[in-house]
Each structure stands twice: as structure tokens, then as C-alpha cells.
Amino acid sequence: MNSKRVVLPALCILLACAPAESGSEFEKWKHQQLESFQQYKDERDKAFAAFLEQHWRAIELEQGVVRDRNPKPVVAPIATPQAAQPTETIAPPSVKPQPRGPETPAPVIPKPRPGVSTEVDYFGTLITFYYDPAFQRAPPGRVTKTAVSNFWSAQSKTDYQALIQQLDAQAKALRLDDWGYALLVHRLAMKIHPLSKNNQALFCWFMLSKAGYDSRIAYSEDRVYLLLAAVQRMYDVTYFTFGKERYYAVSFDGSRHRPGQVYTYDGQYPGAVKKLDMVIRTRAARGNDAHKRDLSFDYGGKRYVIEASYQPSRVDYLNTYPQLDLELYFKSEVGEVAESPLLQQLAAIVDDMEEVDAVNFLLRFVQSAWQYQTDEQQFGAENSLFPEETIYYPYSDCEDRSVLFTWLVSRLLGLDVIGLNYPGHVAAAVHLDQDVAGEHVIYNGKKFLVTDPTYINAMAGMAMPGYEHMKPGVIPVR
After folding, report:
1. Is residue 428 assigned to a domain?
2. What pLDDT, on the 0 to 100 scale, is given for residue 244?
3. Are 130 and 116 in contact (CB under 8 A)?
4. In the predicted model, what is the mean pLDDT of the chain?
5. In this structure, are 183 and 246 located in the same domain?
6. Structural domain span for residue 227
7. Spatial contact of 127 and 138, defined as CB atoms under 8 Å apart
């Protein structure tokens, strides 16, 4: 938790724990401390509001960076010879039900407090908040620097500390990472200002700044943009640069902002220095909506059927993420609802296999259990998927398959894996304990055998036609 968010609670705890026998002397000291903190808070907000009255300049929002302009394979090639026709169908191995442990995240049930109550639907989890009705006041008329300054002044006089405490408590209970926290603030903004995206952006800016995040806004004639700094690079997201820092015009609903001239300020709210860390660090479920689908494929003359689980609510959550560096997809955590049943079923099969056979089995599973389509064909735009999104969607492309395959090999076989980044194509490679001939790369002094989940029926050591002997970039994996 950011230290700026704990100043007031820590002060309150200190005061509450002080000895009672100090009597009037202590009461006087306590009153002075609270007054001192309030004065500091008021002066900080007053100075920032005055700053917002003056220090604005016109900038150009730049077009989002494209991760790879090279076209992907339109059709997944098929290796020869063709796989043998199956003579036996293997039913899904039994899966032991996983008990819901006491660690299953659940929202905090808040005690009633003064203010307006509202219920936020956070991807299937209902969360109650109480907020100061003064939050509902919106800047009148057209957005200007004076209107923005007045908005900050008005919001800083609300009981925002109580709302920050509620947000922090829910984020801890639900194990939210930075993106999840920002999404929660936005969902709350939609309840407080349901009719205005501009007011939602302003509310998010104020609350995220108060929570310690490096958050700014920009405005044009009729639109307000929320701008956030991030640890990792985002792709296809409009941004602008101050010094060496990029600020992204993030959108929590999947819409894309057009580049163009806007007005913003060159400065930071005191203490608002934290960048969004976009790594998914939690496996926590988002709701109780587990669904199942059968995934079938052929290997070694047998047809296997795997019953996969997924959560539409968590898929919806993951779908809010902007496009990121490929390394983050390879290193992301997988939700517990999707992970356990899939790993149990596959482990029951590969545990008795030789190492190379197990790798080829998992490779064939990812190659054949999903049909191939590029992101342009399935979504109309680039949209790399996290593993459980791949389980959910009917189609997948090269990076989706490679992310899922490396996760499976790492979790089930414990082998070192890497991603391979070719122009217009992503594959994977595995370091085997035994020396196996085939196409390979050397990374950190180890030999990694090429394994391409998009080259249908290909075995370990076979590179897709057109990429043989090409030196790819290496994507580190967990």
C-alpha cells in the first residue's frame, strides 16, 4: 500500500493508543495534531488548485505504438506426414473437486456510515460503498482550466479519506493488483456519475491521485481524458510524453481515443508518484460463474477429450487490459478456476510419458484443440490473450497458443521454456534434459528446442516453414 494512503489512519491509531491518563494535556495535543494534519492537507490541495488555474499547455496526443507491423500467418500450416486417424477415444480423466478455502477472496461488508450508499458490480462481485454526496457535484458547462481547478477544490473538501479507506479495504480483500484497483475506482465513478464520461474521468483522476498514483487529465473542447503512467509499455493506446515518461489515455471500456490536440498541465500532485504495474499477480476468482467446454484433439492414434473450465466474469476482467508487452502474457498468473481442472486432467496423462513425448503431447493439444484465426479475423484488431481467455474463445493465434503452451509445460513438466518472437509470428522453445536433434536456439548457455503451437502436427524441433534458421527474439518466461 502506498505510504501516502496511510498517513491519516496511522495518525488516528496513534491518537487512539495514547495513554488516557494524560487528560486535558493529551486532548489538547491530539486536537493540535489533527488540526496540523488538516492544515497540511488543505494547504496542499489549495496550492494544487491554484497551480491548475495557470499551468496548462497544448500538446498532441500521439497515436499508440504498434507492437509488430508484420502480418501474421493467415492460415496455420500443417506438417507432413499427416497424423494417424484415431482408433480410440480417451474420456476426460476424473477431476477432484477443489474445496473453496478460507482464502477465497470476498468483499468486505462495510458498516453503515454517513453518506450515500451505492452497490458496485465488480465483475460479478457486488460491493457496497458509502460516499459523501458532495462527490456528485460536477463542474458546470464547458471544461476549462478554471472549471478543473474548481472541481479539484470542491472534491478536496469532501470526505474522500473515508472513500479511499473503503477502496483500499476492498482491494486488499479481493487481492486486486494496480489495474484492478483503477478499474474499481472507475466502476465506482460510473455509479456516482452515470451520465457523464467526463465526470467519471475527473473523479478517477482525483481519487487515483489521492491514492498515490501518477494520474493526470487532459481536455479538448468536449472531452476529458484520464492519463496514467505505467511501469510497462502499452500498445495501441494514445499517449503523450513529459520528459521521458509516457502518460497513456487509458480507457476502461475498451474504446480507443483518437490522437489530436488537447490541453494538460505539466506537474504532479504531491505524493502521486506510483506508476501502474500491469503484471497480473492474483489468481483470485472474480465471481461464482464457472463454465465448462470440451476440447478434443488426436495424438498417437487416440482421440483425447479434455473438459476445460473458465469464468466469463474473469474473462471480462482480462478483456479490459490494454495490449501489453508479450512478456507480461507469458508471465501472468492464471485464475484458479481455469487452472486446477485443466492441469489435473493433463497431468493424469503426461505423468507416465517420457519427457519428449509429454512435450509433444502438450504441443499437439494446443495445436489442435482450437481453430486458428488471427486477431484481425476474430476481433477486428490486435488482441493478445491471456491463457484463460484462450480457453474461452473459439479461435486463437500464434502468441495466444505460445503463451498457453509455455504455461502448461512449465506447470506440468517443470521444464525451462521461452517465447520466440519472429517478425509477424510467435512460437516457443523448451529446454530438455536430454539432447534432441532439431531446430533450436541457444539462450543463457542452454539449448532450447523449437516448439511451435501454430504449426499443426509439428513435433518438437520443427520450425514453421519460412522461419527455419531465422534468429528470433527471446521472450523470458516465468
Report:
1. yes
2. 86
3. yes
4. 87
5. yes
6. 3-52+108-265
7. no
